[in-house]
Write a structure and sequence with these properties.
Blueprint lengths: L2 H16 L16 E7 L2 H12 L2 H4 L3 E7 L2 H10 L4 E4 L5 H4 L4 E9 L2 E5 L13 E4 L4 H12 L8 E4 L2 H9 L5 E5 L2 H8 L4 E5 L8 E6 L5 H20 L1 H12 L3 H8 L2 E2 L3 H9 L2 H15 L15 H9 L1
Parallel strand pairs: 1-2, 6-7, 6-8
Antiparallel strand pairs: 3-10, 4-10, 4-11, 5-8, 5-9
Helix pairs in contact: 1-4, 2-9, 2-10, 7-8, 9-14, 10-11, 12-14
């Protein structure tokens, strides 16, 4: 779908999410270097480092107070960054077109994720089998991303399916009730769907593409470098604690999200984590920039971006390395 249509869809997505949130009406905390309003998605990727930072008292060590708010996808967090309701947020690779278009700044890569799938009702085994059928997708997310990748690999476009925009929770209910034939969606939502439709088909996924798909933490464009530096330090410390305590990290995520440890562990199985040293090295050797650039090519192809920018324009790898060097 053209980028202009996606942009028109964002306010509608936000209005759905706002029903489940209590946003600070006049946050303005971008100007307050002691308070951090941080958005996240309720999964292992989105909640992990925030759960660790709270448990380990890492915010306090940097002289910060964090207020976290849960969202159901990345694009609505970018919208909240722009309105000043958030300072920071978490996005998957499918929403990376938004910072690439100048709407936010990537301050830290989190993980590589392979949680995205095109799923279909039992008996629908290939992308070709979805031709002409109803496919639900949260637009502008990694579910949208894997759907576009899978369509291109199959020699198809969105014109070959009935693409229906819906938020992730609606995808779950629509698929389980049989109102849609397929979906571009991600774990752990797929586990929720599988409970009702155990024989669903996974017809495509990020794992089989051979590419890497970074998740990231993003900052609003008006947040100061001083504040970003403090938050990056918290994220780096939490990241290394996660690397050293994988089982405890799963337990903390389960507690934060009020799910079982088995559910959190299953979600974590789709994620590749790294130490901060690893992430610094991947930033320095250009691996992260190449991954972001490849995503940019996809977003240009899908008309979400007019041109593919230099990743250095929206990913502050230099600051990430500087903070780590201390």
């Amino acid at each position: 779908m053209p980028g202009s249509s996606l942009r028109r869809a964002l306010p509608a997505l936000l209005s759905v999410t706002v029903l489940t949130l209590t946003l600070n009406a006049c946050s303005g905390s971008a100007a307050d270097d002691d308070t951090v309003d941080f958005g996240y998605i309720g999964d292992y990727n989105g909640a992990g480092l925030l759960a660790i930072a709270e448990d380990q008292g890492l915010w306090k060590k940097q002289g910060l107070t964090a207020r976290t708010k849960v969202f159901n996808n990345g694009p609505v967090q970018i919208q909240a960054l722009g309105s000043g309701d958030l300072d920071y947020g978490y996005i998957g690779p499918g929403a990376m077109w938004l910072p690439a278009s100048g709407k936010a700044k990537v301050i830290s890569v989190n993980t590589y994720t392979y949680a995205d799938r095109v799923i279909a009702q039992p008996g629908i085994r290939t992308m070709k089998d979805l031709k002409g059928k109803r496919v639900g997708v949260p637009e502008g997310t990694s579910g949208d991303m894997i759907l576009n990748i899978a369509l291109e690999k199959a020699g198809m476009t969105t014109k070959d399916i009935q693409k229906i925009a819906m938020d992730p929770s609606t995808v779950v209910s629509a698929f389980t009730s049989g109102k849609i034939d397929g979906a571009g969606i991600f774990y752990p939502s797929i586990d929720t769907i599988r409970e009702k439709v155990p024989k669903l088909e996974e017809v495509a996924g990020t794992k089989g593409t051979g590419d890497v798909f970074p998740t990231a933490f993003v900052a609003g464009n008006k947040v100061s470098e001083k504040k970003n530096s403090k938050v990056i330090k918290v994220l780096q410390q939490a990241n290394d604690w996660r690397a050293q305590h994988p089982e405890e990290s799963v337990a903390l995520v389960a507690g934060m999200l009020d799910v079982s440890e088995a559910q959190a562990k299953a979600d974590a199985s789709h994620v590749e984590t790294f130490t901060t040293d690893d992430l610094v090295a991947k930033s320095a050797n250009g691996e992260i920039a190449r991954a972001l650039s490849k995503l940019g090519d996809l977003f240009v192809h899908n008309k979400q971006l007019e041109k593919n920018p230099d990743p250095a324009e929206f990913y502050d790898g230099d600051l990430y390395r500087k903070v780590h060097a201390g």
